[in-house]
Write a structure and sequence with these properties.
There is one protein chain. The protein is α/β, with parallel strands linked by helices and 172 residues long. The chain has one domain: Rossmann fold (3-Layer(aba) Sandwich). The chain contains six helices and five strands, in the order βαβαβααβαβα. A five-stranded parallel sheet has the order 2-1-3-4-5, sandwiched between helices. β1, α1 and β2 form a beta-alpha-beta unit. α1 packs across α6.
Length: 172
């Protein structure tokens, strides 16, 4: 698929859960490239770069090749999921032993999709995404949230918003 398609990085323990459904609502019919983090062996951050040859570099290469990056995660205990957190911790490699990849991210646009059963995203949830993008010279463009609770009217409204979100990302 061409690099013009957004790269969506899914950090959910369930590859076919609510967060995947949110991605499919936003980016139907192959309008984005998808990376499912749990499908890759990515070790935690190591000061000695003991995981330098794991799959993190492969995904970093895909980020470099993309103009638009979307991080997608469920809300777990008021924060991003564990697979996404490990991936974000490893972004330190982009300022250390993978500096060329880190510098190549400058100017790229970044969005986020989150899913959860709370009415709103927890306070500060977007901070790690926005600050990481800023630190790497990327432009954080915002978040779409899919409420997965019991209020059907709210769920429908968020689903409709996601259907508008994807085309906005693609057109950006």
């Amino acid at each position: 698929m061409p690099a013009a398609l957004p790269l969506v990085i899914l950090g959910s323990a369930r590859s076919n859960g609510e967060t995947r459904r949110a991605i499919d609502l936003a980016f139907p019919q192959s309008t984005a490239r998808l990376v499912i983090l749990p499908d890759f062996a990515i070790g935690g951050y190591s000061y000695d770069h003991l995981n330098a040859n794991d799959a993190f570099g492969t995904i970093a290469d895909q980020m470099v090749a993309a103009d638009k990056i979307v991080f997608a995660t469920p809300v777990y205990w008021y924060a991003m999921s564990a697979p996404m957190k490990i991936f974000f911790d490893r972004m330190s490699d982009l300022t250390e032993n993978r500096k060329a990849q880190g510098k190549a991210l400058k100017g790229k646009s970044v969005w986020m999709i989150a899913t959860g059963s709370d009415e709103e995203l927890p306070q500060g949830f977007e901070v790690p995404f926005a600050r990481t993008a800023d630190y790497l010279g990327m432009h954080y463009r915002g978040c779409a949230y899919l409420y997965t609770g019991k209020d059907p009217a709210r769920r429908n409204a968020d689903e409709e918003a996601l259907q508008r979100f994807g085309p906005l990302v693609v057109a950006a």
